[in-house]
Amino acid sequence: YNFTDCDFEKIRKKYQEVIYQALEKYMNGIKSTEFNNPIYCEDPPDCLTKIERITFYPTHGCTSLAKEIFAVGTNAALTLQCPGYSGMQINNTQAKKKRKKREVTTNKCRKQVAYLIELWRRFSRIS
Amino acid sequence: GDWALEGALQLQIINFNFEVVQVTWNASKFSGTNLTFLYKLSSDKTSSQCSNYIFQQSHTAGCLLEAKKDEILCFSIKNETHLLLTKCQWISAYLKPSSPKDLNFQWHQEAITVTCSDLPYKRLLYEIQYKSMFDTEWQSKEGETCNVTTDGLDAEKCYFFRARVKTMESSYGPDTYPSDWSEVTHQQRGELRDSCQERKLFPKFILIS
Known about the structure:
Chain A is mainly alpha-helical. Chain A is 52% helix and 0% strand.
């Protein structure tokens, strides 16, 4: 999907109002700058492409981000503000409202979320 | 790991208004050797060694880099034999904006609008502080542009004003620096004053003859 036609301003607002706190909460006090090698993104569409890939596509050692609250917020923002974007099918019961019995947050997942934090920050600086 | 060495080196990074990035370290724990700084900005094709070292007691203690835009800086610090540290971060994470200049004041009844020119990048907070000569504490008001209105003032009183720029944490992270404060400006009855001196009601010395 090409994110060029999205309403970046509205996505940025959704990020600042919802997604940002959820990402920070996930990191539980660990700074994203504690992880080296942030991912570069050039412009808003490029940033959203990389955010979508990291958020919704499992990687080795971190398979569960799509169920997190920040992922639900991301999915909602992209679905609402990007014409023709069909969004990811996240089963509402899977989405973690309260982190009761939580899978152990692997360091690999924290690294992925650190990438997301830097990408969202970059997106909000340039949109 | 790198975190321990980063602590040992007392590494500090400051991005001065996206113009110059200053990276400094404390090499005293490395028997005063001359550490070497190699770096690459995301827009650079190759890495290069620092061309503008900062020296302390005749040993390298930092590097000044020209910054062109919001990008990722990767660098490594070595002594003669070992690579001590490698690090890659957005230089925006260590931004220190320049302080506001040419503050402009517009009074309307008991309110004042303070304006100045916005910096050329986004997601900043412009903070205006003010107090009258009878106040001990500054009062603060913020805006996302340098156009901040404060009301409930008494135009007869003389007020001190100053301004600075901060970054939004959701866009720059928690490691940035607020700008320095602007010069203090004095205002009374809608006019600029050199200072806010109390008017002496009685002269100090009365000659009784």
